[in-house]
Amino acid sequence: VTDFWDTAGQERFQSMHASYYHQAHACIMVFDVQRKVTYKNLNSWYRELREFRPEIPCIVVANKIDADMKVTQKSFNFARKFSLPFYFVSAADGTNVVKLFNDAIRLALAYKQHSGDFMDQVLQELE
């Protein structure tokens, strides 16, 4: 079973409750290529993610490439800085969306099967 959660605007609260990260096995961090502030916010979201889930795989996604395909020629350093997979997608027209989710599921399952994450062990004991 795979669950996907969307923050649905939670970024306006500057952080999310720790329970939001409970049993997460992967994270997809999406920014809007038309709104620079969403890219700038990746640092704080990534820091918070690592506070609660230090080892889970994380993918960085540039969304809304359908608005201007030239954006795919740009270099976004955040993913490279942290050695994270990076995708250009369009949720509007579906470009790379299936590939993104297939890869995220694959990474999450691999992580779950081979996790040495202390929090995973604690959560497993509590179940």
TrEMBL record:
One of its GO terms (biological process) is protein transport. It comes from the Eukaryota. Keywords: GTP-binding, Nucleotide-binding, Nucleus, Protein transport, Transport. GO terms for molecular function: GTP binding; GTPase activity. InterPro entries: P-loop_NTPase (IPR027417), Ran_GTPase (IPR002041), Small_GTP-bd (IPR005225), Small_GTPase (IPR001806). It holds the Pfam family Ras. PROSITE patterns: RAB (PS51419). The keyword Nucleus applies. It is found in: Nucleus. GO terms for cellular component: nucleus. It catalyses: GTP + H2O = GDP + phosphate + H(+). NCBIfam families: small_GTP. Belongs to the small GTPase superfamily. Ran family. Belongs to the small GTPase superfamily. Rab family. This is RBL2A protein. It comes from Tyrannus savana.
